[in-house]
């Protein structure tokens, strides 16, 4: 602060001295007295432990912000000078404050969409499944669709039969219902949906599909394959209003979990434009950093980078897909799968398609984010990145600071880990994928390759910054689960399995950086956010316990207390 501004703030507090005392709870003990300096902040969080993610000052007692930026990090005593004027002073005793958490890889619209669709995966009985549908249907207004997915009768322990309309009609009289089975090629519908679709006992089965019927020939409400189409045709259309509502719900759901930024790995321009509207309307509950899918690369390259002055929304990357996933044996491996006689596939994007995009990205300063899972996909993309660097003369690059990313990068032999360092490539990884995939990875990969699968600590040992993410809605998208998975490398019930390599888990300090400072680096934002330091944006995540010291299992039940983005409280648990 320059001298003039400092003098002005002193003056304004002096003239408001009464208000200073009256508005700052608790009273005299902590309030700046008239002979102390007064430098009113907008927000002061004090009487707590603040984990800054800044090595130079790892913890503090209090933090203060003004005009969206951090103005103070330090002791409770020194924080007093900011607790005056109209400062919102919050005693954080019993809670813990962290640098704002960032999810480095998720799909925002899908997070919001998920809140409108019931998941029936993993329910143990038919009775519970029907009860779950009833509870969900009760929350849906009359006339609107009751949507869900994922029921699977062969895993039920009470009865193993297909659901039909008689299971659900009693509580969905005026609400059409459509719920695909887990396989996605058959579905449950109710009487109201049959009526809206005009399906009766006289309706013939379509080519390649069937309406299941009772002995009298009436449709039962279990429909197969192409018979699902008549219902899909009358589902609510994906209008701009529908998508925008999904984005809004996604923002709110993320903020309620403690995320202060999410990095979207493939946001179409239709969604970008809707999010711009949300931004203009002041409804950004957290920051968004986005990459455009390669299908829209030419538009990205003509529009260029788009960013808002408040850094709430930044579009700077192109998202590329290369191979499949390990579970489905679609990840591209150098050698064959240990449990199949092939090595997966790649070329979801071909080299021919990608090379011109890489060259243009170098010339325009666009970040590349590539989905690569198997070691063959990783190695090939390292080659392609390297070739592009050499093909475009340096004096034609927009910047030497590329920070091209690899998303997932699950299997990386040591020699290629070193190439990440040499080429300046950032690994963007999801700890929850690790603890899920390790259930089948030993079968898919065998013992040797497991030694460098999900190799978090090896990468950190190389000096690499891992951008931690969740890939929600594929995963839950919960910072507690990601943090827990990163430090334990165990299932949520605390168990692990043979070959899981516990030594590849990371320390809590590393995990904190994976979800704060390092993602900021991955978005070229380490100078403005990612840690709690004076001058950076006031982005904070508050939980009701100390994630850095509690028993690992207690991390999973921590309650998000408050989320702060640019000094604004975007979520607060009122309980
Ligand atoms: Zn993804």
Structure, described:
With 575 residues, the chain is an alpha/beta fold. The protein has 3 domains: 1-94 and 532-575, Urease, subunit C, domain 1, CATH 2.30.40; 109-232, Diaminopimelate Epimerase, Chain A, domain 1; 240-524, Metal-dependent hydrolases (TIM Barrel, Alpha-Beta Barrel), CATH 3.20.20.140. Helices cover 33% and strands 20% of the residues. Strands 8, 15, 16, 17, 18, 19, 20, 21 and 22 form a 9-stranded mixed sheet that branches. Strands 3-2-7-23-24-25 form a 6-stranded mixed sheet, with helices on one face. A 6-stranded mixed sheet has the order 9-10-11-12-14-13. Helix 9 (240-257) crosses helix 10 (269-280), helix 12 crosses helix 13 (375-391) and helix 15 packs across helix 18 (479-488). Residues 1-30 have low confidence and may be disordered. The structure holds zinc ion. Residues 105, 107, 265, 471 line the site of zinc ion (ZN).
């Amino acid at each position: 602060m320059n001298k003039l501004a400092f003098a002005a703030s002193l003056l304004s507090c002096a003239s408001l001295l009464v208000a200073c005392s009256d508005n700052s709870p608790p009273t005299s003990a902590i309030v700046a007295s008239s002979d102390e300096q007064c430098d009113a902040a907008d927000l002061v969080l004090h009487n707590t432990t603040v984990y800054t993610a800044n090595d130079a000052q790892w913890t503090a007692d209090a933090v203060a912000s003004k005009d969206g930026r951090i103005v103070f990090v330090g002791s409770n005593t020194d924080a007093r000078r900011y607790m005056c004027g109209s400062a919102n002073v919050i005693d954080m005793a019993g809670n813990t404050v962290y640098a704002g958490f960032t999810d480095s890889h998720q799909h925002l619209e899908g997070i919001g969409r998920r809140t409108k669709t019931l998941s029936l995966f993993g329910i143990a009985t038919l009775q519970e499944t029907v009860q779950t549908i009833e509870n969900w249907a009760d929350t849906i207004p009359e006339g609107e669709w009751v949507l869900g997915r994922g029921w699977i009768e062969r895993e039920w322990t009470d009865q193993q039969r297909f659901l039909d309309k008689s299971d659900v009609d009693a509580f969905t009289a005026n609400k059409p219902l459509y719920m695909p089975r887990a396989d996605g090629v058959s579905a449950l519908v109710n009487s109201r949906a049959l009526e809206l679709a005009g399906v009766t006992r006289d309706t013939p089965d379509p080519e390649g599909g069937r309406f299941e019927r009772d002995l009298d020939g009436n449709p039962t409400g279990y429909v197969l394959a192409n018979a699902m189409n008549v219902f899909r045709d009358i589902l609510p259309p994906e209008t701009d209003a529908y998508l925008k509502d999904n984005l809004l719900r996604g923002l709110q759901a993320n903020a309620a979990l403690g995320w202060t930024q999410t990095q979207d790995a493939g946001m179409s321009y239709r969604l970008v434009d809707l999010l711009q509207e949300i931004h203009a309307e002041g409804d950004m509950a957290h920051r968004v950093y986005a990459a455009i899918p390669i299908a829209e690369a030419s538009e990205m390259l003509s529009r260029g980078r788009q960013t808002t002055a408040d850094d709430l929304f930044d579009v700077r990357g192109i998202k590329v897909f290369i191979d499949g996933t390990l579970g489905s044996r679609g990840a591209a491996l150098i050698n064959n799968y240990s449990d199949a006689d092939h090595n997966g596939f790649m070329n979801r994007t071909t080299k021919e398609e990608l090379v011109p995009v890489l060259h243009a990205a170098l010339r325009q300063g666009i970040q590349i984010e590539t989905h690569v899972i198997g070691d063959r996909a990783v190695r090939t993309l390292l080659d392609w990145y390297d070739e592009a660097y050499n093909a475009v003369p340096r004096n034609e690059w927009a910047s030497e600071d590329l920070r091209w990313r690899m998303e997932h990068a699950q299997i990386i032999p040591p020699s290629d880990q070193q190439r990440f360092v040499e080429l300046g490539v950032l690994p963007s990884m999801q700890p929850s994928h690790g603890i899920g995939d390790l259930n089948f990875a030993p079968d898919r990969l065998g013992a040797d390759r497991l030694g460098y699968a999900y190799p978090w600590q090896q990468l950190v040992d190389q000096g690499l910054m891992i951008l931690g993410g969740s890939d929600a809605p594929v995963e839950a998208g919960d910072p507690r689960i990601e943090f827990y998975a990163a430090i334990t490398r165990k299932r949520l019930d605390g168990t692990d399995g043979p070959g899981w390599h516990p030594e590849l888990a990371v320390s809590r300090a590393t995990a904190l950086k994976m979800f704060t400072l390092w993602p900021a680096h991955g978005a070229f934002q380490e100078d403005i956010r990612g840690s709690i330091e004076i001058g950076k944006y006031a982005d904070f995540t508050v939980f009701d316990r100390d994630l850095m010291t509690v028993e690992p299992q207690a991390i999973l039940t921590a309650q998000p207390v408050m989320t702060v983005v640019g000094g604004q409280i975007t979520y607060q648990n009122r309980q």
